Each structure stands twice: as C-alpha cells, then as structure tokens.
Amino acid sequence: MLFAPDTETALRSLVNLINTAANGTESLTGVAELRAFLDVEGFTGSREGSEAELQSVKRLRSQLAALWTANEETAAKGVNQILTDARALPQLAKHDHLDWHLHATPQDAPLADRMGTEAAMALVDVIRSKEMDRLRVCAADDCDAAVLDLSRNRSKLYCDTGNCANRTHVAAYRARKASGSE
Asked: pTM value?
C-alpha cells in the first residue's frame, strides 16, 4: 500500500472528476449527471442539487486539473489555497461502511468545498511523500485524461476512460507488421 486507503479513494475520485472533462467531452452536463457522479463516487453529506452547485464543482474540477500536472511547489500552493478557502479543520470520522478516515469540512459544508478539501488532503499526502510523478496524463497521443499510477513499479501509462492502452498497442503492432518487423 502506497497511501492510506482514504487517500487512494480520494485520488481515484479526483481522477474521475478531472476525467469528466477529458478529451473535449463534458460528462457533467447537468445536475442529474452530477448527482450520478457523486453517487458512484460515494460522496456523502448535503447536496443542493442546483445549477450553482454544478458550476462550483466544474470550477473546482478546473482548479484540480491544473494541480494534477503542476510541479510540487505550485501544487502545494494550490492545495493550501483550497484548504484555506474551505476553512478546513481535519477531524477523524467513522460513518456508514467506512472505517476511520479524515474529514476536514463539516458534512453540511458546500459540496465543492467538501470535494475540494478531500482532493486537497489526498494531494497533501502525495506531495509530502514526493510522489507527484504518480499523477500523469494518458500516454495515448489522442487522449488528455488524467492517470493515477499506484502500481508498485510505476508503470501505468494509460487512462481508464476508454481503450487507450489497447488502441495504442494494436496500432504499434499493425505498424510493425506493415514495416515487416514482425
């Protein structure tokens, strides 16, 4: 295990949030899509279900996407700003089916504050562990999706949004066949 389980969960949710806007697509097209995303990711706490809340999550997504590819210093500044803006105060919590984990905002705080704080707290662990290189962009030429590499040997190159790895490998195979290399 590289990070605490709640950190890995938050990082995976962060990747999934960033990738709702990957490759020029928009998956969070309305409040219903946001609700479905939150349900799949297991976000708890209050929700307004409003257009304003959706827009605040989209602004957060852009902010977090910029941190995903930032250098360590820039990422640290961005994380600190998110935590400051949300007035985060970390506390241990245990609820639903989850064991002890950190919450840094109350369950009734605005959704974007809670989501941003959870992502920022996960990024704190990444930065402190000097593991920023595990936050990547898909290696496929035609994809800009975020990739979280939690593999032991740091070998994950492709995203989970589609068939980028398979598509790239098939193209390379066909190129080798066409050139007579195989």
From this structure: 0.87
